[in-house]
């Protein structure tokens, strides 16, 4: 009577091992190349994973993605890359056709690391959750929406708009153009912005408990520590804008 029990236990152990192997995370490597006209836009949505976007002398967008998840999840949740006309490339890391109820009831996230090369003149529209984002050398009009994510923009040009819940924001502008704007809203992340010494801009700062520090001279025009307006450089307020709004994050302006 004991042999069937032992055989049954052995079969159950084998079945459990097979189920565990099927549920284990696997890695999928995806590469795509998509034509993009100069001055076009890359729109990216990602949930969990690193994002690196680098300017190049290419006339297309080269996407190198590493996806991690269970095999069933990788088959069900797709990396969607498509164009909407000659000047817009759309990348969605977690594309699925599910109702909101189904989405909330299942694990529907594939962690994805992106290395993307774009033409030097490309506008960026980035939405990420729990991701480390690095952008290097890209000129254009840039918008970044993030939650629990760090952002570093190095050697970039053009107007920038960042909305972040938490995570540091580090922006380094290569040059300062007339009517240049940087607009950063964050809840708890610290913000550091580096602009050329020749930059001239009005500065607006609103916070609940954060602080504003500047390596460059500021002339206070109104307000106090929590809500103030100041002038960076000697030009008029129309020469550019630096706008910061935080709850508890600190802001630093560097040269």
Describe this structure as you would to a colleague:
- The protein has 255 residues and is mainly beta.
- It has one domain: Pectate Lyase C-like, CATH 2.160.20.
- Helices cover 13% and strands 53% of the residues.
- The chain has 3 helices and 21 strands.
- The chain has helices at residues 2-23, 71-76, 100-105, and strands at residues 25-35, 41-47, 51-56, 60-70, 78-83, 88-95, 111-119, 123-129, 132-136, 142-147, 150-156, 160-164, 169-173, 180-186, 191-194, 201-206, 212-214, 218-223, 227-232, 240-246, 251-254.
- An 11-stranded mixed beta sheet has the order 5-6-2-8-10-12-14-20-16-19-18. A 10-stranded mixed beta sheet has the order 1-4-7-3-9-11-13-15-21-17.
- The protein is globular, with a radius of gyration of 23 Å.
- The termini are far apart.
- Mean pLDDT is 87; it is low at 6-22.
Question: Quick summary of this structure?
Answer:
This protein has 255 residues and is mainly beta. The chain has helices spanning 2-23, 71-76, 100-105; strands spanning 25-35, 41-47, 51-56, 60-70, 78-83, 88-95, 111-119, 123-129, 132-136, 142-147, 150-156, 160-164, 169-173, 180-186, 191-194, 201-206, 212-214, 218-223, 227-232, 240-246, 251-254.
């Amino acid at each position: 009577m004991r042999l069937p029990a032992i055989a049954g236990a052995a079969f159950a152990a084998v079945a459990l091992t097979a189920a565990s192997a099927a549920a284990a995370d696997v890695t999928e490597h995806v590469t795509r190349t998509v034509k993009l006209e100069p001055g076009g836009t890359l729109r990216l949505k990602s949930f969990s994973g690193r994002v690196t976007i680098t300017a190049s002398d290419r006339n297309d967008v080269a996407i190198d993605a590493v996806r991690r998840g269970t095999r069933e999840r990788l088959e069900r949740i797709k990396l969607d890359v498509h164009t909407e006309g000659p000047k817009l490339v759309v990348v969605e890391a977690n594309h699925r056709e599910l109702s909101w109820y189904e989405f909330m009831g299942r694990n529907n996230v594939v962690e994805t690391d992106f290395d993307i090369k774009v033409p030097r003149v490309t506008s960026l529209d980035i939405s990420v959750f729990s991701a480390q984002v690095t952008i290097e050398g890209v000129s254009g009009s840039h918008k970044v929406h993030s939650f629990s994510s760090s952002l570093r923009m190095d050697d970039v040009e053009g107007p920038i708009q960042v909305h972040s819940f938490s995570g540091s924001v580090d922006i380094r502008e290569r040059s300062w153009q007339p009517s240049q704007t940087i607009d950063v809203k964050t809840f708890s992340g610290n913000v550091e912005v580096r602009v050329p010494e020749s930059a001239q801009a009005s500065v607006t700062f609103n916070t609940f408990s954060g602080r504003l520090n500047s390596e460059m001279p500021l002339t206070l025009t109104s307000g106090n520590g929590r809500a103030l307006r100041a002038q960076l450089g000697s030009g008029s307020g129309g020469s550019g804008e630096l706008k910061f709004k935080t709850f508890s994050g600190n802001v630093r302006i560097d040269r």
